[in-house]
């Protein structure tokens, strides 16, 4: 099984109600054995995950070009505040200054309060 925790960017595939797959490159960070991503709450992937947890994951370039095989997964929107904060705390260690700058401007613009954390569970 691929260790996605070591990847800077992964392709998160979510599914529309009609079954059509939609790929989105996202950053990911691990807390223990659990993988997390985050997004703006109004993003399409978040809307699709509200309708169903079916997902796939593959390592990819920053531009979203897959560099490995897709793995079946389930992705869930995190509603627990403690889990959300624990997940977001994992990103600065992995992405460093880039995450700090993104977070700073997100707070400044008010967008950070709209961030949604996504828990990704890989199929066995």
How would you characterize the overall build of this protein?
The protein has 124 residues and is α+β, with helices and mostly antiparallel strands. 28% of the residues lie in helices and 36% in strands. It has three helices and seven strands. Strands 2-1-5-6-7-4-3 form a seven-stranded antiparallel sheet. Strand 1 and strand 2 form a beta hairpin. The longest helix has 19 residues. The model has no long low-confidence stretch (mean pLDDT 87).
* CATH fold label: Pnp Oxidase, Chain A
Q: Total helix count?
A: 3
Distance between the termini: 9 Å
**Strand percent estimate:** 35-45%
Strand order across the largest sheet: 2-1-5-6-7-4-3
Portion in helices: 25-40%
CATH level 1 class label = Mainly Beta
Secondary-structure element sequence? EEEEHEEHHE
CATH architecture annotation: Roll
CATH homologous superfamily annotation = Electron Transport, Fmn-binding Protein, Chain A
The biggest beta sheet reads: 7 strands, antiparallel
Please outline the helices and strands.
Layout: E1 9-15, E2 21-27, E3 29-31, E4 34-40, H1 44-51, E5 54-59, E6 71-77, H2 81-88, H3 91-109, E7 115-122
Antiparallel strand pairs: 1-2, 1-5, 3-4, 4-7, 5-6, 6-7
Essential attributes:
single chain, alpha+beta, Pnp Oxidase, Chain A, 3 helices, seven-stranded antiparallel β-sheet, 124 residues
Write a compact overview of the structure shown.
The chain has helices at 44-51, 81-88, 91-109, and strands spanning 9-15, 21-27, 29-31, 34-40, 54-59, 71-77, 115-122.
């Amino acid at each position: 099984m691929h260790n996605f925790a070591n990847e800077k960017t992964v392709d998160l595939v979510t599914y529309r109600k009609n079954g059509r797959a939609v790929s989105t490159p996202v950053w990911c960070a691990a807390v223990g054995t659990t993988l997390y991503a985050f997004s703006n709450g109004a993003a399409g992937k978040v809307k699709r995950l509200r309708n169903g947890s079916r997902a796939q994951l593959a390592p990819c370039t920053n531009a979203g070009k897959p560099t490995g095989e897709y793995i079946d997964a389930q992705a869930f929107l995190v509603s627990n505040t403690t889990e959300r904060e624990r997940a977001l705390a994992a990103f600065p260690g992995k992405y460093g200054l880039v995450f700090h700058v993104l977070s700073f401007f997100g707070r400044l613009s008010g967008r950070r309060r709209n961030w949604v954390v996504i828990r990704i569970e890989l199929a066995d």
